[in-house]
Amino acid sequence: MRKAVLRWLVSLLLVGSALTGISFAQNEPVRFGQVTKADFDLIQSLADTSAEAYVLHDFGETIFFIKGDDLWMEQLVHERIYIRKKSAYSRATVQRPIYAGRTGQELLLDIRGVTHNLVNGEIVSDKMSRDAIFTEKLCDNVQQKKFTLPNVREGSIIEYSYKKQTPFSLEHNPSTWFFQSSVPVRWSEYRISIPTYYYYKMIMGGYLPLHLQESKPTRIGLSAGLSVEGTQYRFVVKDAPAFRDEPYITTELDYLSRVEFELANINIPGQLTRDFSLSWQALDKTLLDNENFGGQLGRISFMKEVVARAKAKPDTFERLTSIYSFVRSSLKWNGRAQLYSGGSKKVWDAGEGDAADINLILVAALREAGFEANPVILSTRTHGKINEAFARINKFNYVVAHVEVNGREMLLDATDRSLKPGMLPFHCLNGDGRLIHPSAGRFVSLNPSERDTELETIKMELASDGELTGSFTKSHGGYSAWRQRNEIAAEGQDKYLEAVRKDHKGWQISKSEVRNLAEIEQSVIVEHTVTIPDAGQVAGDRIYFRPLLSEAYTENPFKATERSFPVDFGAPMDETFMAEYKLPAGYEAEQLPSALALTLPNNGGRYNFQASVRSGTLVIISRLNLRLPQYSAEEYHNLREFFARIVAKQAEQVVLKKQLTASK
Which DSSP symbol is given to 62? Predict the structure, then answer.
């Protein structure tokens, strides 16, 4: 029997599947359906009273078993949730996708649900009926199991459990287990047991510490009559705070605490040795050998005339920019981030393609023109950061071009016509990318080559009734200019200017002009002729007004008192506000905001504010400079206090007083 099973396992592995043996489940810490009054009493001590719900218990365990002639992976899930507010009622409806492929179909089985309510001091439990379980088809390969628990109200404790079975021929890695949620989690536990034959990479993510991490030797039963040595693992996170969508993050997957599994190798003594894990060098080779990646780097016969004209130019940088400009003006990006091309000639004829299509053509054209050019793969900000300790192709979703010109390394992306040469789109600013080369592959920094700069210039005259009239000019450089150009390209200039008017309520904008849209190397300048009727509030012989108008920070973007993960601005930032207000005749400044100079530790940024009156003109200068694209969690408190003081300073008013005229 054992030899027969092992022969079957080896034959399965040799056609590309993976095998792991997992122990049968032990008793979980909380049993389904057993809720006591003490559980309801416990709720009163929960820390986060603002949460709409609270996960009291989240348990998962994976086992593997043989069913018929196939190997299956089964994950047991049991979740218990306290419903505090009506806004959490949607948590009583559970939706889980199940996938199908040519090699098998997932199953979702043994679905159970119950709602517990405390009624007149007694627990009343309502079980979910089978009629509450539905199967919906989402697409050809994906269905969805959906079920709703009954009689949910504020104060309910709901719980459900199910088993998801997945054939190894469809997927050989256990599902990622998340310890954290959008609501607080009191206890989250995941268990897994792995036979000695199999080595899995266990990849911890997020920023929360483990409450428990245990491992011990064990005997593992793969099936009746087949038992092997293994190791049992247990992971627990306790009192996980709710993950909230705070400002300046990439994607929540970069921050949620979790454990992922990836099969690295199998070693069955005397039977099979197979390595499933890629080194970075092997990953480079895999891509270069792929017809839809490396196979596209030499196929640009359709661009021979363009390349020939470029090679005739005497200046190296001019040769590069001529090819770069031609590719991005000839091909339209379809908005898709992809790692593989659908075929260079096909894309060229269609005039449209994804990121891989366009930028692999760019690499090939630059090589044909004599440049040392190579593709760089990366993960976009919404796709998540890569972990350089593990070479995993599926963690990448985008391609750009790398080229060396006159000793300077440049990254180019031909999907976007608003980019300067050497500038990546904002969605690509995400740590490091991997330069793909047959012998010299390496990581390259994706740090921005440009800053995000805005310069606001005001020249206005203040009337004695508080009305301001004059010009308001905003100059956008770097990534700010890139955003304006793309917004105008997408919406049109009229809609763009209408949005500006909506953002400046109370302003009467009689004329607007946008300059330098086509001049990529220059700042985008937007100038308005403006009247603001109630800019100043008149009270007797005084006028009160806030000199930064609607351009001030009115609230601190960092509201949380604690933050366990970095603040990611994407690019360094410069914001400058310079205003000259001609004061009404007979008025003088009675009170001006005092000067302020702030500096972040380690020269991480600074803020300066000055207010003065010169020859009847009020001059305001406000400068904010953030030198880093990212600030660590340890720097958060200083950054939060930095912005709190900026908000307070920019809220201060100027007080003007009318001077009495001496009688003759």
Answer: E
Question: Within a 13 Å sphere around the CA of 51, how many CA atoms are in the beta-carbon half?
Answer: 25
Q: Which domains does the chain have, with CATH numbers?
A: 2-275 (2.60.40.3140), 280-445 (3.10.620.30), 452-658 (2.60.120.1130)
| Angle in degrees, CA 173, 176, 178, rounded to 5 | 165
32-69 burial, b for 16+ CB within 10 Å, e for fewer?
A: beebeeebbeeeeeeeeeebbbbbbbbbbbbbbbbeee
Mean pLDDT of 374-388: 96
Contact 70, 168 (CB under 8 A): yes
CA distance 363 to 346: 17
Using CB atoms within 10 A of its CB, is residue 189 exposed (0-12), middle (13-18) or buried (19+)? buried
Contacts of 392 (CB under 8 A, 6+ apart): 262, 278, 386
Contact assessment for residue 371 and residue 405, using Cβ atoms and an 8 Å cutoff: yes
**Residue 405 in contact with residue 274, Cβ under 8 Å?**
no
Token readout for 600 is 């972040």
CB 243 within 8 A of CB 180: yes
Mean pLDDT of 538-565: 93
| DSSP label at residue 242 | P
**Can you say whether residue 370 is alpha, beta or left, with left for phi > 0 and alpha for psi between -120 and 50 degrees?**
left
Q: Are 560 and 242 in contact (CB under 8 A)?
A: no
pLDDT at position 200: 87
Look at residues 154, 233, 236, 230 and name the one whose alpha carbon lies nearest to residue 197. Answer: 230
Per-residue pLDDT tens for 184-221?
A: 999 999 999 888 888 889 999 999 999 999 999 988 77
Identify which of 485, 495, 470, 554 has the alpha carbon closest to the alpha carbon of residue 515. 485
* Residue type at position 402: H
Q: 204 and 256 in contact (C-beta within 8 Å)?
A: no
Helix axes 304-311, 355-368, angle to 10 degrees: 50
Q: What is the CA radius of gyration of the chain?
A: 31
Greatest alpha-carbon span in the chain? 120
Cα 503 to Cα 252: distance, rounded to the nearest angstrom: 29
Helix (H, G, I), strand (E, B), or coil: what is residue 367? Answer: helix
The two structure tokens encoding residue 505: 């309520």
Using DSSP, state whether 137 is helix, strand or coil: strand
- Rounded Cα distance, 357 and 353, in Å: 5
Tell me the β-bridge partners of 25. Answer: none
Q: For residue 25, which phi and psi values (nearest 5 degrees)?
A: -65, 140
CB 15 within 8 A of CB 9: no
Residue 12 identity (one-letter amino acid): L
213, β-bridge pairs: 235
Tell me, what amino acid is at 240? A
| CA-to-CA separations, 583 to 472, 606, 648, 655, in angstroms, rounded | 17, 30, 24, 11
DSSP string covering 465-477, please? TS-EEEEEEEEEE
Amino acid in the structure at residue 73: M
Between CA 190 and CA 59 the distance in angstroms is 6
8 A C-beta contact, residue 360 and residue 303: no
**Token code pair at residue 52:** 């709409």
At residue 480's C-alpha, the angle toward residues 478 and 481, to 5°, is 70
Q: What DSSP string describes 22-33?
A: -PPP---SS-TT
Place of tokens 């000839």: 330
Residues 502-530 have pLDDT tens digits of 999 889 999 999 999 999 999 999 999 99
